[in-house]
Amino acid sequence: MMKAIPRILMLALALGLTACAAPPPKPLYQWNGYQARLYEYFKNSGANAGEQITVLEAQLQRNDAARLASPPGLHGHLALLYSKVGNDAGARQHLEAERALFPESAASVDFLLKRPAATPAIPATPAIPATPAVPATPATAPQSRC
After folding, report:
1. pLDDT tens across 34-74, in order?
2. Fewest CB atoms less than 10 Å from the CB: which of 3, 48, 55, 82?
């Protein structure tokens, strides 16, 4: 019986300490595979923009329904996707949502919103006609007057 008392005390102490342990903290943002989607988008050179829009919009709706915060960049990435498929209104809406949720992104979002939608990202350079080079020969080389 005397040998059982230290074991019982140790067990009671262990149970007492675990009962006081706090549950793990709730994550600040609900990522729901957003990082994997972002990786997939860049891995496939943006080939599946329409599919990504569907998945990420569904994630936003689930987060809103559960009152969970969406991660930074999700609205910005949706803006990129909408712009890629030609939906400028959707892109603008998500850029403004990104700026409202994350004020630290305001400078970047304002820069993107200032660009006209019809302006291409890289301006086309006009074709320059090639002119044949005429090599200087002793007969055609300019004569010096010195």
Report:
1. 888 888 888 888 778 888 899 899 999 999 998 889 999 99
2. 3
Give domain 27-114's CATH number out of 1.25.40, 3.40.1700, 3.40.50, 1.10.1060.
1.25.40
Report the 10 Å Cβ neighbour count for 32: 20
Which two structure tokens, joined as six digits, stand for 137?
């020969």
Q: What is the pTM of this model?
A: 0.61
Q: Which residues of 47-84 are buried (b: 16+ CB within 10 A; e: fewer)?
A: eebeebbeebeebbeebeeeebebbebbbbbbbbbbbe
The residue to which tokens 């102490």 are assigned: 13
Query: Cβ distance 98 to 105 under 8 Å?
Result: yes
